[in-house]
Amino acid sequence: MSYDFKRLPELGWAVGIAIALVLFQVLVDFDPETVENWKTWAVAVGAAGTRAAGAAGLNWLRQSLKR
After folding, report:
1. Is residue 27 part of a domain?
2. Which of 4, 28, 51, 56 could connect to 14 by a Cys-Cys bridge, CB 3.0–4.6 Å?
């Protein structure tokens, strides 16, 4: 069985899954009573999402360079 690697769908899935995992992690640990500074919290969530998207992008780059 052969697999035809399609860059755009693979990248879309990788980024989508990475974003979903970040959101699920945030929802599990979220307690509004403990948040003292909402700006810091928002920056942390944004950084986690950027990191996840970067990891997905690096995976895509690795796959595309294999060809």
Report:
1. no
2. 56
Domain total in the chain: 1
Predicted TM-score of the model (pTM): 0.47
In Å, how far are 2, 7, 39, 54 from 61, measured between CA atoms? 21, 9, 32, 10
Residue 54 within any structural domain of the chain: yes
63 burial level (CB within 10 Å; 0-12, 13-18, 19+): middle
Write a three-state SS string for the chain.
Answer: CCCCCCHHHHHHHHHHHHHHHHHHHHHHHCCHHHCCCHHHHHHHHHHHHHHHHHHHHHHHHHHHHHC
